[in-house]
Amino acid sequence: MANSQYDQFLQEATAHDAAPGAVLERDCLYGIYTSWCFLSQTAPRSEDDFWAAMRQKRIRPGRTPLRMKGPAAADYILSSYPGVV
After folding, report:
1. Is the pTM of this model over 0.70?
2. Tens of pLDDT, residue by residue, the chain (85 residues)
3. CATH of the structural domain 5-84, one choice from 1.10.10, 3.90.1570, 2.60.120, 1.20.1510
4. Cβ of 76: how many Cβ atoms within 10 Å?
5. What is the C-alpha separation between 26 and 61, in angstroms, rounded?
């Protein structure tokens, strides 16, 4: 069975992290998703669809221990904080 766009996003752009404080908040998680879509040349789905899929996967922003990783993380950070460069 093929992975969904959301499965692929979670695999490529996030990782579970049990370290204290290792959680992504709502805006950050969706921002990384849109960065991942841009980099993978995939059309992002609506924010409502994204959150419905995350609920099905039991991913709760601010509570599920996720950290960002990979090129989408770098793109998100650079586009969110342009003064970093």
Report:
1. yes
2. 346 999 999 999 999 887 777 788 999 999 999 999 999 999 999 999 999 999 999 999 888 889 999 999 999 999 887 776 5
3. 1.10.10
4. 23
5. 5
